[in-house]
Specification:
The chain has six helices and seven strands; from the N terminus they run E-H-E-H-E-H-E-H-E-H-E-H-E. The chain has 165 residues and is α/β, with parallel strands linked by helices.
Length: 165
C-alpha cells in the first residue's frame, strides 16, 4: 500500500531530527514543506526529490500533491515544522489520505520544548516543586475550552509550555 510520511523537523537544528526522518528526507521523491518555517539546512537534506513549498499552495493542492504522488508509488514526505503531532493539523490530511486508500506514518522529532530546556541547561520537572508539564497555547484565532483557559491551568502550579503564542 502507498504511504505518505508526515515528518517533523523539530526546533530547526538538523542534528535534532531523528535518523529515520533524515533517511526519509534524503530518499524522498517528493517533499511538501511548510514554507519559511523549515530551515534551509533541513531542506538541503533532500538529495533527489522535488521540493514543493506549501506556503504557496491551498490545502486542496497540498492534498492532491500528496495523494497523486503516493498513488504513483513515490516516497512522499510532508515536512512539518516542529513535531507534526503538536498543533500540526495533520488529522484532516491523514483522514483524507485514508479515504483514498493511502497509509500515513508520522515521524516524530525532538520537540522544541525539550530542546529549549536542554539548551538552557535546565529541567522541566523538579521534585518538591512540580512533577507535571502542561503543553498549551494562548487563545487567539483558535478558541480553547473554558476549563483550559490559561488562568485555570496556572492554578495547578505546573510547568507550562506555550506553543504558537
Amino acid at each position: 500500500m502507498s504511504k505518505v510520511f508526515f515528518v517533523g523537523c523539530g526546533p530547526g537544528d538538523p542534528d535534532l531530527i531523528t535518523i529515520k526522518a533524515k533517511k526519509l528526507i534524503q530518499k524522498a521523491d517528493v517533499v511538501v514543506y511548510s514554507g519559511s518555517l523549515i530551515p534551509e539546512p533541513i531542506l538541503k537534506l533532500c538529495k533527489k526529490g522535488k521540493l514543493h513549498n506549501a506556503a504557496k499552495l491551498v490545502r486542496e493542492e497540498i492534498f492532491k500533491l500528496l495523494k497523486n504522488n503516493a498513488k504513483k508509488g513515490k516516497v512522499v514526505v510532508r515536512l512539518h515544522d516542529g513535531d507534526p503531532t503538536i498543533y500540526g493539523a495533520i488529522k484532516e490530511q491523514i483522514d483524507n489520505l485514508e479515504k483514498e486508500g493511502l497509509e500515513a506514518e508520522i515521524i516524530p522529532v525532538v520537540t522544541s520544548f525539550l530542546a529549549s530546556a536542554a539548551a538552557l541547561g535546565t529541567q522541566l520537572t523538579l521534585p518538591g516543586v512540580t512533577q507535571t508539564i502542561i503543553v498549551t497555547r494562548a487563545e487567539k484565532r483558535t478558541k480553547v475550552p473554558e476549563r483550559e483557559q490559561i488562568s485555570e491551568l496556572a492554578k495547578h502550579g505546573a510547568t507550562m509550555i506555550f506553543y504558537l503564542s
